[in-house]
Amino acid sequence: MEIGTTVKNQPQTGYLSSIIEAGTAACRLYGLSKTNVVDIARLLGKSPASVYKIFPSKAAIWDAIAGNFFETDLCFTPSAGGELTSAASRLKETALGQHRLMLRAHHGDSQMFDLIVLAAEGNWPSFRDHLTRLQAYVGELVATGIATEEFAPRNVVTAAACFCASVISLW
């Protein structure tokens, strides 16, 4: 099944957000496999047709919900004093921080964890966006490490991709 996040007729951000919030609530309440568009519409007090006016498919709704979870719950924020530490220390902090966020999701929000694992396994756009953001941040750290001669010169994009692949494999 092809997953897409294209939205029909560019709806108002508020309604789009309310669908994502209702979808998240339904997923947490019923579980991913048992939640359907009718459940989401019911939580909104709308018809399923009104939800499908915004999203072209159930898969697009799941992708939007996963994307929201990646951005809000799995977005690693480095510590404030990060600029004073080595690039290697910041890479370690990033890997451990990302792992802690995943553990917290796995143990504290298992329904949403199942959704993001599905997004990762299916290579959904939301997962690719999350991975792109993570690789960009890691790439900056690798480039800084190379510039300060902490790391040997390497292809930054490849090094960041390999590092992120190792972090993602911890899921």
Brief characterization of the structure:
This is TetR family transcriptional regulator. With 171 residues, the chain is an all-alpha fold.
Notes on the structure:
The chain is mainly alpha-helical and 171 residues long. The protein has a domain at 72-168. It has eight helices and no strands. α1 crosses α2, α4 (58-72) packs across α6 (110-121) and α5 (87-108) packs across α6 (110-121). The longest helix is centred in the last third of the chain and has 23 residues, at 125-147. It is elongated and about 60 Å long. Mean pLDDT is 89; it is low at 5-9. Keywords: DNA-binding. GO terms for molecular function: DNA binding.
Topology:
Layout: H1 13-30, H2 37-44, H3 48-52, H4 58-72, H5 87-108, H6 110-121, H7 125-147, H8 156-168
Helix pairs in contact: 1-2, 1-4, 4-6, 4-7, 5-6, 5-7, 7-8
